[in-house]
């Protein structure tokens, strides 16, 4: 049996320790971020249109606030959450009792091949070390159906941030800041088509000030044509 990577254990333990306070602190965060709401709404519409009615997984869903937002768009999305930390999932189930939440890791989602119509990784790949990120993206490719979209959100930068305390609790978390172009390159290496790369400057005021700029990359698994996965050539030069 393969030993669990250390980063999974420390991430789970840290988020379990702060789950209650984290749920209270972030509950209204999306209300203060119209640009993020716009990106998530567009992603939801793409999944509703092209996901073939398959489920949408919010991978690293935490307390389920974004899972609930996607569900509340009224697009008929079959959205569910997956997270490492049992206490975060307990908060998600408490806040969103009508939605499904499962414990799991993005390195091994335990889902059938091509079973998802969409996948959201909203600030959840940020704790995955560089050497493990290609494995996560390969897993995303595996579980996405052809034509299905994946949306990532993450902090932009070149150096990681390490925290040992948050919300009055001792933790051990590494936040890997990455350049959007690097994320896009890794997604392409995993066989996914990059459709959009967005960068925005950090917020310095308001209720949720930020330490770094923010990045958002949208990609999809190529549509199968002629028995293979082909690039979209409808807008070829």
How would you sum up the global shape? globular
Order of helices and strands: HHEHEHEEHEEEHEEEE
* Class from helix and strand fractions: alpha/beta
Rg computed from alpha carbons, rounded to a whole number of angstroms: 17 Å
Number of separate helices: 6
Spatial strand order of the main sheet: 3-2-1-4-5-9-8
Question: Could you give the distance between the termini?
Answer: 50 Å
Protein traits:
alpha/beta, 7-stranded mixed β-sheet, two-stranded antiparallel sheet, 6 helices
Secondary structure layout plus pairing:
Blueprint: H1 6-26, H2 34-50, E1 56-59, H3 65-71, E2 79-83, H4 86-95, E3 100-103, E4 116-122, H5 133-143, E5 144-155, E6 161-166, E7 169-175, H6 180-189, E8 193-200, E9 214-220, E10 224-225, E11 228-229
Parallel strand pairs: 1-2, 1-4, 2-3, 4-5
Antiparallel strand pairs: 5-9, 6-7, 8-9, 10-11
Helix pairs in contact: 1-4
Fold and architecture overview:
The protein is an alpha/beta fold and about 240 residues long. It is about 30% helix and about 25% strand. It is built from 6 helices and 11 strands. The protein has helices spanning about 5-25, 35-50, 65-70, 85-95, 135-145, 180-190; strands at about 55-60, 80-85, 100-105, 115-120, 145-155, 160-165, 170-175, 195-200, 215-220, 225, 230. The strands form 3 sheets. Strands 3-2-1-4-5-9-8 form a 7-stranded mixed sheet, sandwiched between helices. A two-stranded antiparallel sheet has the order 6-7. A two-stranded antiparallel sheet has the order 10-11. β2 (about 80-85), α4 (about 85-95) and β3 (about 100-105) form a beta-alpha-beta unit. α1 (about 5-25) runs parallel beside α4 (about 85-95). The radius of gyration is 17 Å and the shape is globular. The termini are far apart. Mean pLDDT is about 95; it is low at about 230-235.
């Amino acid at each position: 049996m393969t030993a669990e990577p250390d980063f999974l254990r420390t991430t789970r333990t840290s988020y379990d320790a702060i789950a209650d306070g984290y749920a209270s602190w972030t509950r209204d965060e999306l209300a203060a971020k119209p640009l993020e709401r716009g990106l998530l709404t567009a992603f939801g519409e793409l999944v509703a249109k092209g996901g073939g009615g398959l489920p949408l997984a919010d991978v690293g869903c935490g307390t389920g606030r974004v899972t609930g937002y996607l569900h509340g768009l009224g697009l008929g999305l079959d959205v569910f959450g997956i997270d490492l930390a049992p206490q975060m999932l307990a908060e998600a189930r408490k806040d969103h009792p009508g939605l499904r939440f499962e414990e799991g890791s993005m390195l091994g989602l335990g889902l059938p091949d091509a079973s998802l119509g969409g996948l959201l990784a909203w600030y959840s790949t940020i704790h995955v070390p560089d050497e493990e990120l290609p494995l996560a993206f390969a897993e995303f490719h595996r579980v996405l159906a052809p034509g299905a979209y994946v949306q990532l959100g993450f902090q932009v930068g070149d150096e990681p941030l390490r925290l040992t305390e948050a919300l009055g609790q001792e933790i051990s978390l590494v936040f890997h800041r990455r350049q959007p172009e690097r994320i896009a390159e890794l997604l392409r290496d995993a066989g996914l088509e990059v459709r959009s790369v967005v960068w925005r400057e950090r917020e310095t005021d308001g209720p949720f000030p930020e330490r770094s700029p923010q990045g958002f990359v949208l990609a999809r698994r190529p549509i199968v044509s002629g028995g293979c996965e082909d690039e979209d050539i409808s807008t070829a030069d």
